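Attaching the record inline, Q. Sequence:
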Amino acid sequence: MNSNKKLETLRHSAAHLLAHAIQELYPDTLFTIGPATEEGFFYDVLPSKNFKEDCLPLLEKKMHEIALRNLPLTHQNMAKEDAKRLFNHNKFKLELIDGIEGDFVGIARQGDFVDLCKGGHVENTNQIQHVKLLHISGSYWRADKNGQPLQRISGTAFWTEKELLEYVQKKEDALKYDHRRIGKALDLFSFQEEGPGFPFYHPNGKLILNILTDHLKKLLLKYGHVEISTPAMLSDELWRRSGHYQFYKDNMYFCSIDEKEYAVKPMNCPGAILVYNDRPHSYKELPLRYAEFGHVHRYELSGVMHGLFRARAFTQDDAHIFCMPEQLNKEIVSLIQLHRELIDPFGFKTSVRVATKPAKSLGSDHLWEIATNALIDGLKQEQYPYDIAQGEGAFYGPKIEFHLLDSMGRSWQCGTIQVDFFQSENFDLSYISTEGKKERPVIIHRALYGSMERFFGILLEHYKGKLPFWLAPVQIKILSITDEQKSYAYSIAQYLKSYNIRVAVDESSDQISGQIKAACAQGIPWALVLGKKEMAQNTVTLRYADGKQEFNLSLEKLIQKAQQTITDFL
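Structure, as predicted:
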Protein backbone atom coordinates (compact mmCIF):
# COMPACT_ATOMS: atom_id res chain seq x y z
CA MET A 1 0.00 0.00 0.00
CA ASN A 2 2.83 2.39 0.88
CA SER A 3 4.51 1.68 -2.48
CA ASN A 4 1.23 2.34 -4.33
CA LYS A 5 0.75 5.61 -2.44
CA LYS A 6 4.24 6.78 -3.36
CA LEU A 7 3.60 5.95 -7.04
CA GLU A 8 0.30 7.84 -6.87
CA THR A 9 2.18 10.85 -5.45
CA LEU A 10 4.72 10.69 -8.29
CA ARG A 11 1.98 10.51 -10.91
CA HIS A 12 0.00 13.33 -9.33
CA SER A 13 3.16 15.43 -9.49
CA ALA A 14 3.67 14.39 -13.13
CA ALA A 15 0.18 15.72 -13.95
CA HIS A 16 1.30 19.12 -12.57
CA LEU A 17 4.48 18.86 -14.63
CA LEU A 18 2.38 18.24 -17.75
CA ALA A 19 0.22 21.29 -17.00
CA HIS A 20 3.37 23.36 -16.45
CA ALA A 21 4.68 22.27 -19.87
CA ILE A 22 1.34 23.10 -21.52
CA GLN A 23 1.38 26.53 -19.87
CA GLU A 24 4.80 27.33 -21.30
CA LEU A 25 4.09 26.03 -24.80
CA TYR A 26 0.40 26.92 -25.11
CA PRO A 27 -0.26 29.72 -22.61
CA ASP A 28 -3.90 30.32 -23.70
CA THR A 29 -4.96 26.85 -22.46
CA LEU A 30 -7.47 26.63 -19.60
CA PHE A 31 -6.85 23.87 -17.05
CA THR A 32 -9.52 21.82 -15.25
CA ILE A 33 -8.33 18.80 -13.24
CA GLY A 34 -5.32 16.49 -13.44
CA PRO A 35 -5.46 13.44 -11.15
CA ALA A 36 -3.31 10.35 -10.83
CA THR A 37 -4.93 7.14 -12.11
CA GLU A 38 -4.27 3.44 -11.72
CA GLU A 39 -2.29 3.47 -14.97
CA GLY A 40 -0.70 6.91 -14.78
CA PHE A 41 -2.23 10.38 -14.88
CA PHE A 42 -4.15 12.77 -17.10
CA TYR A 43 -5.00 16.44 -17.34
CA ASP A 44 -8.27 17.70 -18.88
CA VAL A 45 -7.79 21.02 -20.65
CA LEU A 46 -9.56 23.49 -22.92
CA PRO A 47 -7.00 24.69 -25.49
CA SER A 48 -7.50 27.67 -27.78
CA LYS A 49 -6.81 25.27 -30.67
CA ASN A 50 -7.22 21.51 -30.35
CA PHE A 51 -4.09 19.47 -29.66
CA LYS A 52 -3.06 16.73 -32.06
CA GLU A 53 -1.00 13.61 -31.43
CA ASP A 54 2.13 15.28 -32.83
CA CYS A 55 1.97 17.74 -29.90
CA LEU A 56 2.82 14.95 -27.46
CA PRO A 57 6.58 14.73 -28.24
CA LEU A 58 6.87 18.52 -27.82
CA LEU A 59 5.07 18.44 -24.49
CA GLU A 60 7.08 15.47 -23.27
CA LYS A 61 10.34 17.18 -24.19
CA LYS A 62 9.26 20.31 -22.33
CA MET A 63 8.33 18.19 -19.26
CA HIS A 64 11.85 16.73 -19.15
CA GLU A 65 13.31 20.19 -19.55
CA ILE A 66 11.27 21.57 -16.62
CA ALA A 67 12.11 18.52 -14.49
CA LEU A 68 15.83 19.29 -14.86
CA ARG A 69 15.31 22.81 -13.49
CA ASN A 70 15.16 21.25 -10.00
CA LEU A 71 12.11 23.26 -9.02
CA PRO A 72 10.78 22.62 -5.52
CA LEU A 73 7.09 21.65 -5.27
CA THR A 74 5.41 23.59 -2.48
CA HIS A 75 1.91 23.66 -1.07
CA GLN A 76 -0.01 26.25 0.93
CA ASN A 77 -3.53 27.03 2.09
CA MET A 78 -5.03 30.19 0.62
CA ALA A 79 -8.22 32.08 1.41
CA LYS A 80 -10.89 31.41 -1.17
CA GLU A 81 -11.22 35.06 -2.16
CA ASP A 82 -7.47 35.28 -2.82
CA ALA A 83 -7.63 32.05 -4.81
CA LYS A 84 -10.47 33.41 -6.93
CA ARG A 85 -8.37 36.46 -7.78
CA LEU A 86 -5.47 34.16 -8.66
CA PHE A 87 -7.66 32.11 -11.06
CA ASN A 88 -10.03 34.86 -12.20
CA HIS A 89 -9.28 33.99 -15.84
CA ASN A 90 -10.29 30.31 -15.44
CA LYS A 91 -14.01 29.54 -15.07
CA PHE A 92 -13.30 25.88 -14.27
CA LYS A 93 -11.02 26.63 -11.31
CA LEU A 94 -13.53 29.21 -10.03
CA GLU A 95 -16.28 26.57 -10.10
CA LEU A 96 -14.03 24.12 -8.27
CA ILE A 97 -13.18 26.70 -5.61
CA ASP A 98 -16.88 27.37 -4.98
CA GLY A 99 -17.46 23.66 -4.50
CA ILE A 100 -14.76 23.22 -1.83
CA GLU A 101 -16.00 23.34 1.78
CA GLY A 102 -14.49 25.85 4.21
CA ASP A 103 -12.80 29.21 3.78
CA PHE A 104 -9.45 27.98 2.42
CA VAL A 105 -8.23 25.97 -0.57
CA GLY A 106 -4.93 24.28 -1.39
CA ILE A 107 -2.48 25.88 -3.79
CA ALA A 108 0.47 24.04 -5.35
CA ARG A 109 3.50 25.82 -6.86
CA GLN A 110 6.54 24.86 -8.90
CA GLY A 111 8.48 27.78 -10.33
CA ASP A 112 6.02 30.13 -11.98
CA PHE A 113 3.33 27.44 -12.34
CA VAL A 114 0.46 27.57 -9.84
CA ASP A 115 -2.46 25.16 -9.54
CA LEU A 116 -5.45 24.47 -7.34
CA CYS A 117 -4.62 21.27 -5.45
CA LYS A 118 -5.24 19.55 -2.12
CA GLY A 119 -1.62 18.38 -1.97
CA GLY A 120 0.48 15.23 -2.16
CA HIS A 121 3.57 15.81 -4.31
CA VAL A 122 7.21 14.85 -4.62
CA GLU A 123 9.69 17.36 -3.23
CA ASN A 124 11.36 18.45 -6.47
CA THR A 125 10.71 18.29 -10.21
CA ASN A 126 13.98 16.40 -10.74
CA GLN A 127 12.30 13.37 -9.16
CA ILE A 128 9.91 13.19 -12.13
CA GLN A 129 12.39 11.81 -14.66
CA HIS A 130 10.76 8.67 -16.05
CA VAL A 131 7.60 9.98 -17.66
CA LYS A 132 5.86 9.33 -20.97
CA LEU A 133 2.81 10.87 -22.61
CA LEU A 134 0.52 8.31 -24.19
CA HIS A 135 -2.43 9.79 -26.06
CA ILE A 136 -4.98 12.56 -26.48
CA SER A 137 -8.70 11.87 -26.18
CA GLY A 138 -11.98 13.70 -25.73
CA SER A 139 -13.70 14.28 -22.41
CA TYR A 140 -16.36 16.51 -20.85
CA TRP A 141 -16.27 18.89 -17.92
CA ARG A 142 -17.60 17.08 -14.84
CA ALA A 143 -17.95 13.95 -17.06
CA ASP A 144 -21.27 15.40 -18.27
CA LYS A 145 -21.92 14.79 -21.97
CA ASN A 146 -23.96 18.01 -22.00
CA GLY A 147 -21.07 19.95 -20.48
CA GLN A 148 -18.07 21.69 -22.00
CA PRO A 149 -16.11 19.40 -24.37
CA LEU A 150 -12.46 19.13 -23.32
CA GLN A 151 -9.29 17.35 -24.35
CA ARG A 152 -7.61 14.81 -22.11
CA ILE A 153 -3.85 14.31 -22.32
CA SER A 154 -2.85 11.05 -20.65
CA GLY A 155 0.54 9.77 -19.59
CA THR A 156 2.34 7.64 -17.06
CA ALA A 157 5.33 7.93 -14.75
CA PHE A 158 7.55 5.51 -12.84
CA TRP A 159 10.39 5.77 -10.37
CA THR A 160 12.85 3.91 -12.60
CA GLU A 161 13.64 3.72 -16.30
CA LYS A 162 13.36 -0.07 -16.18
CA GLU A 163 9.75 0.11 -14.95
CA LEU A 164 8.86 2.64 -17.62
CA LEU A 165 10.42 0.56 -20.42
CA GLU A 166 8.57 -2.54 -19.22
CA TYR A 167 5.32 -0.57 -19.23
CA VAL A 168 5.97 0.77 -22.74
CA GLN A 169 6.62 -2.78 -23.96
CA LYS A 170 3.34 -3.93 -22.46
CA LYS A 171 1.56 -1.06 -24.23
CA GLU A 172 3.16 -2.06 -27.53
CA ASP A 173 2.10 -5.68 -26.96
CA ALA A 174 -1.41 -4.50 -26.13
CA LEU A 175 -1.57 -2.59 -29.41
CA LYS A 176 -0.11 -5.50 -31.37
CA TYR A 177 -2.55 -7.97 -29.83
CA ASP A 178 -5.56 -5.65 -29.66
CA HIS A 179 -8.67 -7.86 -29.87
CA ARG A 180 -10.12 -5.64 -32.61
CA ARG A 181 -7.05 -6.26 -34.76
CA ILE A 182 -7.16 -10.01 -34.04
CA GLY A 183 -10.90 -10.12 -34.69
CA LYS A 184 -10.43 -8.57 -38.12
CA ALA A 185 -7.40 -10.70 -39.02
CA LEU A 186 -9.18 -13.94 -38.06
CA ASP A 187 -12.56 -12.82 -39.47
CA LEU A 188 -14.34 -13.20 -36.12
CA PHE A 189 -16.41 -10.03 -35.77
CA SER A 190 -16.78 -6.49 -37.07
CA PHE A 191 -18.31 -3.11 -36.25
CA GLN A 192 -20.32 -1.32 -38.92
CA GLU A 193 -21.18 2.35 -39.45
CA GLU A 194 -24.85 1.38 -39.49
CA GLY A 195 -24.63 0.24 -35.86
CA PRO A 196 -21.83 1.98 -33.91
CA GLY A 197 -21.03 0.09 -30.74
CA PHE A 198 -23.03 -2.99 -31.78
CA PRO A 199 -20.89 -6.07 -32.62
CA PHE A 200 -21.53 -8.12 -35.75
CA TYR A 201 -20.37 -11.74 -35.29
CA HIS A 202 -19.00 -13.65 -38.27
CA PRO A 203 -19.27 -17.47 -38.40
CA ASN A 204 -16.05 -18.30 -36.54
CA GLY A 205 -16.66 -15.59 -33.93
CA LYS A 206 -20.16 -16.89 -33.25
CA LEU A 207 -18.76 -20.41 -33.05
CA ILE A 208 -16.32 -19.37 -30.31
CA LEU A 209 -19.12 -17.68 -28.36
CA ASN A 210 -21.22 -20.84 -28.67
CA ILE A 211 -18.32 -22.96 -27.36
CA LEU A 212 -17.90 -20.63 -24.36
CA THR A 213 -21.65 -20.75 -23.74
CA ASP A 214 -21.82 -24.55 -23.99
CA HIS A 215 -18.88 -24.86 -21.60
CA LEU A 216 -20.74 -22.79 -19.02
CA LYS A 217 -24.10 -24.50 -19.60
CA LYS A 218 -22.59 -27.88 -18.67
CA LEU A 219 -21.43 -26.40 -15.36
CA LEU A 220 -24.79 -24.71 -14.75
CA LEU A 221 -26.49 -28.09 -15.06
CA LYS A 222 -24.00 -29.54 -12.58
CA TYR A 223 -24.64 -26.71 -10.10
CA GLY A 224 -28.43 -26.88 -10.32
CA HIS A 225 -29.24 -23.84 -12.46
CA VAL A 226 -32.20 -23.77 -14.85
CA GLU A 227 -32.31 -21.47 -17.86
CA ILE A 228 -34.91 -18.82 -18.61
CA SER A 229 -35.33 -16.14 -21.27
CA THR A 230 -37.00 -12.75 -20.78
CA PRO A 231 -38.05 -10.00 -23.24
CA ALA A 232 -35.61 -7.42 -24.54
CA MET A 233 -38.04 -4.55 -23.94
CA LEU A 234 -40.31 -3.92 -20.96
CA SER A 235 -42.47 -1.08 -19.67
CA ASP A 236 -40.69 1.88 -18.09
CA GLU A 237 -42.91 1.43 -15.00
CA LEU A 238 -41.02 -1.78 -14.30
CA TRP A 239 -37.66 0.02 -14.46
CA ARG A 240 -38.96 2.76 -12.18
CA ARG A 241 -40.05 0.15 -9.66
CA SER A 242 -36.73 -1.70 -9.79
CA GLY A 243 -34.77 1.53 -9.25
CA HIS A 244 -32.90 1.26 -12.54
CA TYR A 245 -34.73 4.28 -13.94
CA GLN A 246 -33.63 6.41 -11.01
CA PHE A 247 -30.02 5.25 -11.03
CA TYR A 248 -29.42 4.27 -14.67
CA LYS A 249 -31.80 6.10 -17.01
CA ASP A 250 -29.05 8.05 -18.81
CA ASN A 251 -27.64 4.73 -20.06
CA MET A 252 -30.99 3.30 -21.22
CA TYR A 253 -32.83 3.33 -24.56
CA PHE A 254 -36.53 4.27 -24.51
CA CYS A 255 -39.36 4.16 -27.03
CA SER A 256 -43.15 4.67 -27.18
CA ILE A 257 -45.58 1.93 -28.23
CA ASP A 258 -49.37 2.43 -28.14
CA GLU A 259 -48.87 5.64 -26.17
CA LYS A 260 -46.94 3.79 -23.47
CA GLU A 261 -43.25 4.13 -22.63
CA TYR A 262 -40.93 1.14 -22.84
CA ALA A 263 -37.23 0.63 -22.19
CA VAL A 264 -34.79 -1.78 -23.84
CA LYS A 265 -33.35 -3.75 -20.95
CA PRO A 266 -29.89 -2.72 -19.72
CA MET A 267 -29.97 -5.59 -17.19
CA ASN A 268 -31.81 -8.88 -16.78
CA CYS A 269 -32.82 -8.64 -13.11
CA PRO A 270 -36.42 -7.34 -13.41
CA GLY A 271 -37.33 -9.97 -16.00
CA ALA A 272 -36.12 -12.79 -13.75
CA ILE A 273 -38.06 -11.26 -10.84
CA LEU A 274 -41.27 -11.27 -12.91
CA VAL A 275 -40.72 -14.96 -13.73
CA TYR A 276 -40.35 -15.73 -10.01
CA ASN A 277 -43.41 -13.68 -9.11
CA ASP A 278 -45.62 -15.35 -11.70
CA ARG A 279 -46.85 -17.89 -9.14
CA PRO A 280 -46.63 -18.62 -5.39
CA HIS A 281 -43.59 -20.49 -4.04
CA SER A 282 -42.95 -22.74 -1.08
CA TYR A 283 -39.77 -23.00 0.98
CA LYS A 284 -39.48 -26.53 -0.45
CA GLU A 285 -38.70 -25.08 -3.90
CA LEU A 286 -35.89 -22.80 -2.74
CA PRO A 287 -33.29 -22.07 -3.80
CA LEU A 288 -34.45 -21.33 -7.34
CA ARG A 289 -31.50 -20.63 -9.62
CA TYR A 290 -32.64 -18.87 -12.81
CA ALA A 291 -29.82 -18.53 -15.37
CA GLU A 292 -30.19 -16.30 -18.42
CA PHE A 293 -27.92 -15.43 -21.33
CA GLY A 294 -29.62 -12.09 -21.72
CA HIS A 295 -28.84 -9.65 -24.53
CA VAL A 296 -28.77 -6.16 -23.01
CA HIS A 297 -28.32 -2.65 -24.39
CA ARG A 298 -26.67 0.31 -22.69
CA TYR A 299 -26.03 3.74 -24.11
CA GLU A 300 -22.32 4.54 -24.03
CA LEU A 301 -20.72 7.76 -25.21
CA SER A 302 -18.90 7.33 -28.52
CA GLY A 303 -15.66 8.47 -26.88
CA VAL A 304 -15.62 5.61 -24.36
CA MET A 305 -16.64 2.73 -26.62
CA HIS A 306 -13.81 0.25 -27.10
CA GLY A 307 -14.51 -2.75 -29.31
CA LEU A 308 -15.94 -5.69 -27.39
CA PHE A 309 -14.65 -4.29 -24.10
CA ARG A 310 -17.21 -1.49 -24.00
CA ALA A 311 -20.04 -1.98 -26.46
CA ARG A 312 -23.63 -0.75 -26.57
CA ALA A 313 -25.02 -4.28 -26.83
CA PHE A 314 -23.72 -7.43 -25.18
CA THR A 315 -24.80 -10.68 -23.61
CA GLN A 316 -24.60 -11.20 -19.85
CA ASP A 317 -24.33 -14.73 -18.50
CA ASP A 318 -26.63 -13.82 -15.65
CA ALA A 319 -28.34 -15.76 -12.92
CA HIS A 320 -30.73 -14.73 -10.18
CA ILE A 321 -30.92 -17.06 -7.22
CA PHE A 322 -33.97 -16.77 -4.96
CA CYS A 323 -33.25 -18.31 -1.57
CA MET A 324 -34.10 -18.20 2.11
CA PRO A 325 -31.77 -16.14 4.35
CA GLU A 326 -30.45 -19.30 5.99
CA GLN A 327 -29.45 -20.64 2.55
CA LEU A 328 -27.43 -17.55 1.67
CA ASN A 329 -24.01 -18.77 2.81
CA LYS A 330 -24.30 -22.13 1.05
CA GLU A 331 -25.36 -20.46 -2.23
CA ILE A 332 -22.52 -17.93 -2.14
CA VAL A 333 -19.96 -20.68 -1.51
CA SER A 334 -21.42 -22.71 -4.38
CA LEU A 335 -21.17 -19.72 -6.74
CA ILE A 336 -17.55 -19.08 -5.75
CA GLN A 337 -16.78 -22.73 -6.50
CA LEU A 338 -18.64 -22.50 -9.83
CA HIS A 339 -16.64 -19.41 -10.81
CA ARG A 340 -13.37 -21.14 -9.96
CA GLU A 341 -14.29 -24.25 -11.97
CA LEU A 342 -15.32 -22.14 -14.97
CA ILE A 343 -12.37 -19.73 -15.06
CA ASP A 344 -9.39 -21.80 -13.86
CA PRO A 345 -8.91 -23.68 -17.18
CA PHE A 346 -8.20 -20.42 -19.01
CA GLY A 347 -5.01 -19.84 -17.03
CA PHE A 348 -5.86 -16.48 -15.47
CA LYS A 349 -4.62 -15.49 -12.05
CA THR A 350 -7.54 -14.17 -10.01
CA SER A 351 -7.85 -11.41 -7.43
CA VAL A 352 -11.01 -10.54 -5.53
CA ARG A 353 -12.59 -7.38 -4.14
CA VAL A 354 -15.68 -6.91 -2.01
CA ALA A 355 -17.49 -3.74 -3.10
CA THR A 356 -19.46 -2.13 -0.27
CA LYS A 357 -22.38 0.30 0.08
CA PRO A 358 -22.21 3.33 -2.27
CA ALA A 359 -23.42 6.83 -1.45
CA LYS A 360 -26.59 6.34 -3.52
CA SER A 361 -28.22 3.09 -2.49
CA LEU A 362 -31.40 1.37 -1.33
CA GLY A 363 -32.11 -0.05 2.13
CA SER A 364 -30.82 0.13 5.68
CA ASP A 365 -27.24 -0.07 6.90
CA HIS A 366 -28.18 -3.17 8.90
CA LEU A 367 -29.19 -5.19 5.83
CA TRP A 368 -26.13 -3.97 3.93
CA GLU A 369 -23.95 -5.21 6.77
CA ILE A 370 -25.60 -8.65 6.72
CA ALA A 371 -25.21 -8.89 2.94
CA THR A 372 -21.58 -7.75 2.99
CA ASN A 373 -20.65 -10.16 5.78
CA ALA A 374 -22.28 -13.04 3.89
CA LEU A 375 -20.01 -12.40 0.89
CA ILE A 376 -16.91 -12.08 3.08
CA ASP A 377 -17.75 -15.28 4.98
CA GLY A 378 -18.09 -17.17 1.68
CA LEU A 379 -14.69 -15.98 0.49
CA LYS A 380 -13.09 -16.92 3.80
CA GLN A 381 -14.67 -20.35 3.64
CA GLU A 382 -13.19 -20.89 0.18
CA GLN A 383 -9.84 -19.40 1.33
CA TYR A 384 -9.96 -16.54 -1.17
CA PRO A 385 -7.89 -13.49 -0.16
CA TYR A 386 -9.77 -10.26 -0.88
CA ASP A 387 -9.57 -6.46 -0.74
CA ILE A 388 -12.35 -4.04 0.18
CA ALA A 389 -13.58 -1.60 -2.49
CA GLN A 390 -15.20 0.98 -0.25
CA GLY A 391 -18.44 2.44 -1.62
CA GLU A 392 -18.30 0.65 -5.00
CA GLY A 393 -21.23 -1.73 -4.61
CA ALA A 394 -24.39 -1.70 -6.77
CA PHE A 395 -27.24 0.53 -5.60
CA TYR A 396 -29.17 -2.54 -4.41
CA GLY A 397 -26.40 -4.53 -2.74
CA PRO A 398 -22.72 -5.31 -2.13
CA LYS A 399 -20.82 -7.56 -4.49
CA ILE A 400 -17.81 -9.78 -4.95
CA GLU A 401 -15.77 -8.72 -7.98
CA PHE A 402 -13.49 -11.25 -9.65
CA HIS A 403 -10.50 -9.62 -11.37
CA LEU A 404 -8.52 -11.63 -13.94
CA LEU A 405 -4.82 -11.05 -14.61
CA ASP A 406 -4.00 -11.76 -18.25
CA SER A 407 -0.79 -12.87 -19.97
CA MET A 408 0.28 -9.23 -20.40
CA GLY A 409 -0.11 -8.44 -16.71
CA ARG A 410 -3.36 -6.47 -17.04
CA SER A 411 -6.26 -6.82 -14.64
CA TRP A 412 -9.85 -7.21 -15.89
CA GLN A 413 -12.99 -7.13 -13.74
CA CYS A 414 -15.37 -9.80 -15.01
CA GLY A 415 -17.51 -12.02 -12.78
CA THR A 416 -19.60 -10.72 -9.87
CA ILE A 417 -21.73 -12.13 -7.05
CA GLN A 418 -24.19 -9.63 -5.53
CA VAL A 419 -26.50 -10.01 -2.53
CA ASP A 420 -29.81 -8.12 -2.75
CA PHE A 421 -32.32 -7.81 0.11
CA PHE A 422 -34.18 -4.89 -1.45
CA GLN A 423 -35.72 -5.95 -4.76
CA SER A 424 -37.80 -8.55 -2.93
CA GLU A 425 -39.38 -5.67 -1.04
CA ASN A 426 -39.78 -3.54 -4.18
CA PHE A 427 -41.61 -6.32 -6.02
CA ASP A 428 -43.38 -7.84 -3.01
CA LEU A 429 -41.73 -11.24 -3.51
CA SER A 430 -42.52 -14.00 -1.08
CA TYR A 431 -42.44 -17.70 -0.31
CA ILE A 432 -44.43 -19.75 2.19
CA SER A 433 -42.20 -20.69 5.12
CA THR A 434 -42.21 -23.91 7.18
CA GLU A 435 -44.64 -22.14 9.55
CA GLY A 436 -47.06 -21.33 6.72
CA LYS A 437 -46.22 -17.61 6.73
CA LYS A 438 -45.18 -15.35 3.88
CA GLU A 439 -41.45 -14.48 4.01
CA ARG A 440 -39.16 -12.46 1.73
CA PRO A 441 -36.57 -14.35 -0.31
CA VAL A 442 -33.04 -13.00 -0.72
CA ILE A 443 -31.88 -12.49 -4.31
CA ILE A 444 -28.32 -13.27 -5.37
CA HIS A 445 -27.34 -11.72 -8.71
CA ARG A 446 -24.36 -13.36 -10.35
CA ALA A 447 -22.41 -13.23 -13.60
CA LEU A 448 -19.43 -15.50 -14.28
CA TYR A 449 -17.93 -14.44 -17.60
CA GLY A 450 -19.62 -11.09 -16.98
CA SER A 451 -20.17 -9.77 -20.47
CA MET A 452 -19.68 -12.55 -23.03
CA GLU A 453 -18.34 -9.97 -25.47
CA ARG A 454 -15.85 -8.50 -23.04
CA PHE A 455 -14.64 -11.94 -21.96
CA PHE A 456 -14.24 -12.95 -25.61
CA GLY A 457 -12.10 -9.85 -26.24
CA ILE A 458 -10.02 -10.49 -23.13
CA LEU A 459 -9.40 -14.09 -24.24
CA LEU A 460 -8.23 -13.01 -27.69
CA GLU A 461 -5.66 -10.68 -26.16
CA HIS A 462 -4.73 -13.08 -23.35
CA TYR A 463 -3.90 -15.81 -25.89
CA LYS A 464 -2.59 -13.24 -28.42
CA GLY A 465 -4.89 -14.71 -31.05
CA LYS A 466 -3.65 -18.28 -30.51
CA LEU A 467 -6.70 -19.89 -28.89
CA PRO A 468 -6.27 -23.26 -27.15
CA PHE A 469 -7.22 -26.41 -29.01
CA TRP A 470 -10.64 -26.87 -27.34
CA LEU A 471 -11.72 -23.29 -28.11
CA ALA A 472 -10.25 -22.70 -31.58
CA PRO A 473 -12.93 -22.46 -34.30
CA VAL A 474 -10.69 -24.57 -36.56
CA GLN A 475 -8.75 -27.06 -34.46
CA ILE A 476 -6.88 -28.82 -37.24
CA LYS A 477 -5.85 -27.64 -40.71
CA ILE A 478 -4.86 -30.34 -43.21
CA LEU A 479 -1.99 -29.42 -45.55
CA SER A 480 -0.95 -31.34 -48.66
CA ILE A 481 2.59 -31.27 -50.05
CA THR A 482 1.23 -31.92 -53.59
CA ASP A 483 -2.20 -32.18 -55.18
CA GLU A 484 -1.80 -35.99 -55.15
CA GLN A 485 -2.61 -35.95 -51.42
CA LYS A 486 -5.79 -33.86 -51.71
CA SER A 487 -8.20 -36.80 -51.84
CA TYR A 488 -6.42 -38.31 -48.81
CA ALA A 489 -6.77 -34.94 -47.04
CA TYR A 490 -10.54 -34.82 -47.64
CA SER A 491 -11.02 -38.39 -46.41
CA ILE A 492 -9.12 -37.57 -43.20
CA ALA A 493 -11.23 -34.45 -42.74
CA GLN A 494 -14.45 -36.45 -42.97
CA TYR A 495 -13.12 -39.00 -40.49
CA LEU A 496 -12.09 -36.36 -37.95
CA LYS A 497 -15.43 -34.56 -38.29
CA SER A 498 -17.20 -37.76 -37.30
CA TYR A 499 -15.44 -37.35 -33.93
CA ASN A 500 -16.65 -33.72 -33.63
CA ILE A 501 -13.21 -32.30 -34.37
CA ARG A 502 -13.35 -28.96 -36.17
CA VAL A 503 -11.19 -29.37 -39.25
CA ALA A 504 -10.48 -27.62 -42.56
CA VAL A 505 -8.47 -28.53 -45.63
CA ASP A 506 -6.07 -26.02 -47.18
CA GLU A 507 -7.38 -25.81 -50.72
CA SER A 508 -4.73 -23.40 -52.00
CA SER A 509 -1.99 -24.30 -54.45
CA ASP A 510 0.68 -22.76 -52.21
CA GLN A 511 3.86 -24.61 -51.38
CA ILE A 512 3.84 -26.41 -48.03
CA SER A 513 5.87 -23.64 -46.37
CA GLY A 514 3.23 -21.10 -47.40
CA GLN A 515 0.42 -23.34 -46.13
CA ILE A 516 2.17 -23.72 -42.76
CA LYS A 517 2.70 -19.96 -42.53
CA ALA A 518 -0.99 -19.31 -43.31
CA ALA A 519 -2.15 -21.84 -40.68
CA CYS A 520 0.04 -20.15 -38.07
CA ALA A 521 -1.27 -16.70 -39.03
CA GLN A 522 -4.83 -18.01 -38.63
CA GLY A 523 -4.05 -19.17 -35.08
CA ILE A 524 -4.80 -22.82 -35.84
CA PRO A 525 -3.39 -25.05 -33.06
CA TRP A 526 -2.59 -28.19 -35.09
CA ALA A 527 -1.66 -28.76 -38.72
CA LEU A 528 -1.49 -32.15 -40.43
CA VAL A 529 1.17 -32.37 -43.12
CA LEU A 530 0.49 -35.03 -45.78
CA GLY A 531 3.01 -36.26 -48.29
CA LYS A 532 3.62 -39.44 -50.29
CA LYS A 533 4.94 -41.27 -47.23
CA GLU A 534 1.96 -40.40 -45.02
CA MET A 535 -0.49 -41.32 -47.78
CA ALA A 536 1.21 -44.68 -48.39
CA GLN A 537 1.28 -45.58 -44.68
CA ASN A 538 -2.17 -44.13 -43.86
CA THR A 539 -0.60 -41.82 -41.25
CA VAL A 540 -0.13 -38.09 -40.68
CA THR A 541 2.63 -35.75 -39.52
CA LEU A 542 1.30 -33.54 -36.74
CA ARG A 543 2.77 -30.04 -36.59
CA TYR A 544 1.99 -27.89 -33.54
CA ALA A 545 1.70 -24.11 -33.63
CA ASP A 546 5.10 -23.79 -31.87
CA GLY A 547 6.81 -25.74 -34.66
CA LYS A 548 7.20 -29.08 -32.88
CA GLN A 549 6.29 -32.14 -34.91
CA GLU A 550 5.24 -35.76 -34.41
CA PHE A 551 5.70 -38.19 -37.28
CA ASN A 552 3.89 -41.35 -38.43
CA LEU A 553 0.78 -40.85 -36.27
CA SER A 554 -2.17 -43.11 -36.99
CA LEU A 555 -5.59 -41.47 -37.16
CA GLU A 556 -6.65 -43.39 -34.06
CA LYS A 557 -3.66 -42.02 -32.14
CA LEU A 558 -4.36 -38.51 -33.44
CA ILE A 559 -7.98 -38.65 -32.21
CA GLN A 560 -6.84 -39.92 -28.80
CA LYS A 561 -4.40 -37.01 -28.53
CA ALA A 562 -7.10 -34.51 -29.52
CA GLN A 563 -9.60 -35.88 -27.02
CA GLN A 564 -6.97 -36.02 -24.27
CA THR A 565 -5.93 -32.43 -24.97
CA ILE A 566 -9.52 -31.26 -24.48
CA THR A 567 -9.94 -33.38 -21.34
CA ASP A 568 -6.69 -32.04 -19.84
CA PHE A 569 -7.76 -28.44 -20.42
CA LEU A 570 -11.28 -28.79 -19.08
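The first strand starts at residue 30 and ends at 31. The chain has three domains: 2-164, 181-230+266-462, 476-569.

More tomorrow.
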